[in-house]
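Table S7 (text form). Paired inputs.
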Amino acid sequence: PAVDGSACDFGDPPVYADLAAHELVGGNAWAGEMVINLYPDEVDADAILASMERARDMLGRALTLDAGQDGDVLHVRVINETGHKLPSGYPEGRRMWIHVECRDADGVLLREFGAYDWNRANLTTGDTKVYEAKLGIDQTVADLTGLPVGESFHFALNNVIYKDSRIPPRGFDNAAFTLVQAAPVAKGYSDEQYWDDTAFLLPEGTTQAVARVYYQSASKEYIAFLRDANTTNDKGQVLYDQWRQTGKSPPVEMA
């Protein structure tokens, strides 16, 4: 977005009203809490909290959400407003999903798609769209390491992309993305497609449906992996304890 600011200048730079902000804050609006807890005397807590707020703001600008009804079907479109895949970054358990609540005239919940259990940090994935990348290892690496073939959080060993359903950016081209090993996997997108559509069947009696998109920095499965795989010291358990104390990487409502 356009902001007030000065360009690089060794003298007395003029102030412009249309400089493009270049705040690479990412989407992590949670991990800073753990840093504050663990290093209270070594960090500027206010600065970290401000950074987390900027991350939430960026997440809110990362997509446009549209919804429309056709008979008993709710159509939800998620439009990528970024210059990269949505969500972006290395897939350390990060994910984005569609959540839909269907209620009757009395406000009674009839059906919930993409339900998230905030206490147990469990996401119901079978009835909604989850945008994420999942890596893993093939038979060659399995033979060398003794690990099972399939999805894995052993990032230094992973050599296979088993899933990449993230929404491409504007200008997406399948051939170009394939050339740099960045093509979608287990999910198809057409050239120039920077959105994704999902249809939800509305239960009988529905008078209101609310669609949301959530983003989560780290899944419970990833945090538990880091805890269990670390046999060198107690840092994995420290992380797990902090994860529990700070809301278990609470999902952020994007739209």
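Next pair, protein 2 of 2.
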Amino acid sequence: SVRVRPGDARAFSDGQHIYLPERVDTFGDERDEQVYRVLAARGAGYVEFGTLALDVDALGDVGGVVAQDEAPLTRFFGSFDNPVVARDLFTVFENVRVEARLRATYPGLARQMDALGDAWRPSMRDRADGAPAEQAIRWLAETAIGHSPAAPLDDGAAAAGSAAVTEL
């Protein structure tokens, strides 16, 4: 049982709420309603397919002091040397997993996703160039959803991205 709440320009879920943009104006026609439905389904997919049900205690010692209202994933990411990179990589792989489960479970939704192309996905390409790790994550995210992204500008980022893709 979750509630839909207004969010910013992106759609996400915290396990209790699905946050959706107040308005979708991708096409300027009835397809925007389909974009909204796909975003809502993906938010529900995070809940339905267990993204937010991580049992941190079952992972062993992930360190850190737990704040009273701290989400298990926040604690998990905080156990890494670079929590931002850990969160971003988790998000890339989890988005691919949830989308695959949604497509397999709901063929009608899969047809809507296909009809919309990438219009419902936030574009990683719109983000400014960053550190090599950020470039590699952007490259990996684009590759994971079937794009042929431009190679990262930095040689280290290109090597990291290529190594990760061989593991997919």
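The first strand starts at residue 3 and ends at 6.
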